[in-house]
Amino acid sequence: MRMNKNQKSIKPGKGVRTFFIYFTLVLFIIITAISVKTLLLIEQSLFDGKYINIAISNNKKITEIIGFNAEKNTVSHLYIKNSKLIRHDLLDKLGILIDARIDYYSDVTNRDVLKLLTNAATEKDNIQTDLTIFDLARLWIIAKNSSGNKTIKKEISLPLPDYEIDKNIRSLFKNDAITSRSLSIEIINAASVPGAGKKLERALTNEGFNIISVSTKKEPENISKIRYTSESSYVVGKLKQILKYPAVKSNEKSIADVVIIIGEDKKKFFTN
Asked: Which of 23, 64, 234, 246 has the largest CB neighbor count within 10 A?
């Protein structure tokens, strides 16, 4: 049978080349999308790779604080009985600043930390969290390796005097990576909230920060900030993360290596 002149013969190699071109293009798009998603998860991560403190709540009431120490592969639990605290109370009532939260709305008691992290990752039991899947995976590994004496558990029953609460908080959640650096910190209360500086001093001291001065500024400042004079460090990064204040390098003279200014924009965190 004679082929029409207008018909073109299809070479076998041409179809294979077209397939590989499309395959390579699709593979490139998939790899790029995965890379971008991974970078976004890392950027949104609340776990600095060393320490993280997480508030656990059941029906909005704080029932537990869990601390993960990646350097020692330890997990610390503080169980809170008779708790009527909500997340907003943590700074004022417990003297702690948390990095993340896990909120669940089931009546499960004695929840295992591995199960808790797994359920948070799969959003089972109507769990909500601000941790990323990347965070949860890394914390799951730490929890898995923290067997025996690497798991520390304490229980308090509220109400309790502040000094007793602080003793427990410091024993469980003190950040050695902060303490070892010994950077001095000054707190300036530039918000119209009496006692805000002292509340922040208590929480930061409990975590291991070296507070050397707390003062009040007569003229309020609108924007809270962290000023540092030397190069940015783990201490500055951690403060920026837990306070959600912008960090700026400054040449202003100060008695401390780092200055925290509480402004009007953050005063709601220091009021009941």
From this structure: 64
